Amino acid sequence: MAESTMHQLTMVEALNLALCEALEHDPTVCLLGQDIGVNGGVFRVTKGLQERFGRGRVMDTPLAECGIVGAAVGMAISGLRPVAEIQFSGFTMQAFDQIEQNMARFRNRTRHRYPIRMVLRTPYGGGIRAVEHHSESREAYWAHTPGLKVVIPSSPRNARALLAAAIADPDPVIFYEPKLIYRAFREDVPDAPETLPIGRARIVLEGTDVTLIAYGAMLRRAREAADDLRDLDGTSVELIDLLSISPMDTQTIAESVRRTGRCVVVHEGPRTCGIAAEVIARINEHAFEHLLAPVRRVTGFDVHFPYFQTEEHYLPDPDSIARAVRETIAWDPTHRPR
Amino acid sequence: MKHGGTVRSSAARPGERAAVDGAGRTQAGANGQGPPAVKEAAAPVPFGRRSIDLVARDRPAAARAATLTGISILNESGIAHDALVPDLPPAEFLRIHRAMVLTRAFDGRMLNMQRQGQMGTFAPGYGQEATQIGQVWPLRAEDWFSPSYRSFGAQIVRGWTMDHLMLLWAGFHEGFAPPPGVNDLPFSIVIGSHLPLATGVAMGLTIQGRRDAVLVNFGDGASSEGAVHEAMNFAAVFTAPVVFVLENNGYAISTTLEHQTGQDILAARGPACGMPGVRVDGNDVFAVMTACREALERARSGGGPTLVEAVTYRMGVHTTADDPKVYRDDAEVEAWRARCPIARFEKWLVGRGLIDEAGVQAVTEACELEVLEARDRFRGRAVAHPEELFDFVYESLPEELREQREEYLARLRAKGVIDPAT
Known about the structure:
The complex is a heterodimer of chains A (338) and B (422). Chain A has 338 residues and is of the alpha/beta class. Chain A has helices at residues 11-25, 49-53, 65-77, 96-103, 106-109, 139-143, 156-168, 218-233, 250-260, 275-287, 311-314, 318-330; strands at residues 6-9, 29-33, 58-60, 81-85, 119-124, 149-151, 173-178, 187-190, 202-205, 210-214, 237-241, 244-246, 263-266, 296-298. Chain A has 12 helices and 14 strands. Chain A has a 7-stranded mixed sheet with strand order 3-2-4-5-7-6-12, with helices on both faces. A 5-stranded mixed sheet of chain A has the order 9-11-10-13-14, sandwiched between helices. In chain A, helix 8 links the parallel strand 10 and strand 11. Chain B is globular and about 85 Å long. In chain B, helix 7 (226-237) links the parallel strand 3 (214-219) and strand 4. Chain B has a 6-stranded parallel sheet with strand order 1-7-8-4-3-2, with helices on both faces. In chain B, helix 2 (90-115) crosses helix 4 (152-158) and helix 2 (90-115) packs across helix 13. Chains A and B meet through helix 3, helix 4 and helix 5 of A and helix 6, helix 7 and helix 14 of B.
């Protein structure tokens, strides 16, 4: 079988490729958002697409997040597959009503008569020295909302494949793009279209001592921590990239923890009711008897995302992740209060 | 280039919808198809102090027609402005009358059922029948209707059966889904949240080259919602084929218009967004029909959106959980009783010799009977299906939800709600 030609792309270029392929192959796909047309989006994810596909399919909209999402839901009702962009995920709060009341509920409200086949793309996360409201990670809101799927890629190749899957998905998908790694590295992306199934995590590194779970921009930091732990401590880390926040791949998580008996979960968002809390709950339900230590989490704190002079202290980094893993491994199960 | 009018080449001709260009604007300029021109960042301001034209730039016909008009055809004495009466066959006038009477009969029966504990909370529309029936009467089956929750009269005209609507208000999931063949959205509970959807459907129709229109209604309370403004603004920018019907019934539960807005003429929001505003007597079915018919024709022919404000009055309670005596005087309600939309229409019909007193009585009785028959059908259909709880959330149930569904079904079995053997 001939290997498809590969191109070294950044995540921005890979996302652009996925959008371009969708517009090309499916006439019902259309794009809407602020500054996505002539300007190609503030991060240039939609660069050149309006020029190529016209203003009827790549629409610059007024500056109104609720209007963008509501109009996209309406377009989906009319039979299109819109991909809406909200410039920064912090601004999705102004569209919260449309996401919760309409995007997430319309299929159920109308008993499958009007499925909402749409994707809401939005860059999330910290580390880019931006002003307030430009760095939040609030994926937990959407994971808490029935009817939605929530997907977060971690590399150019899986970004392209997951966005293709999200656009083809029969249900509404929140697609969070880790803007910290939009251009951080390049990866081989094949010419031939490919998709990844939504709802499946990926084992990035196989290991035997501890399961380390991360997603989005934090995956790279977790990977660095895993490399350090291997090199410095000889620890064998099994690294899982969650990819799909909702539905969550409970099986992959539980099977891994049953093998390793230890687990650390990493994310940028605030800790309370965060994604790690859900992962830990599932480990309790499906792998409790295999645990050798309490599951640790390395997350953002329950404070507002800091102004950017302080953001690197707030965000999980390889050292803090490695420290949590070491503590988990050093946990002595005999030290229990009597 | 004094008025910015020549910055872009002329927009879609009147009667021509810019089907390819979802932006609803000329293709010139940005796409490089027109002559290069210097863009002005803003419309010019006249030197000195002068009044300003509402539309300063070169815009589609819709925006240029962004004027404010008032329409009243049939007054409360039943006297019509003959030249403006819709040109319809006599039988159609009688059908319109019957639809209004049926709406009121349904309203009364639903209140009755609610008081007897056979119905959930219900939002009656007593007094708003002309607005309800008049707005949807000019719709075609292929057009779309996106109702607010006080719209059962309009929904019946659109083909929602009364037993279906009873299921809806009685808390059965089946009631929310539009009946097969009815091109409507379910109504919206969160006030105003359905307007961006209506605009989006209209944009979607244009993108797909369809020449149907969308009609969406909402209330004076909803007019304060940001989503409503965003929806109207989007519709104007994209020349979307949508008609916004603002049912101004004077109250948002207890909040009067003067506490809702600083501008009593809500139709003025139309021109403010770049679309015509039409203010009609909402208790005059001819005025409502005429404004909506014209607006729909404009929408279907590429002329963009219209805001129609129907000035009416909610004679009854906001919902069955409301007591209006707390916030308004009986005298005010009585004054509006004299403006009853059905009574004035009946006077006109009688005056035209299209019906007589006995005929009116017969229609009223027939409608009461029709509602009772619907109630009986509703009772036959009023069976909940708790086992369906997970069946409509996603197209196919994700693995994690299958586990939850099993847990839920076990609960139903334990309670004896479903057969333990299943």
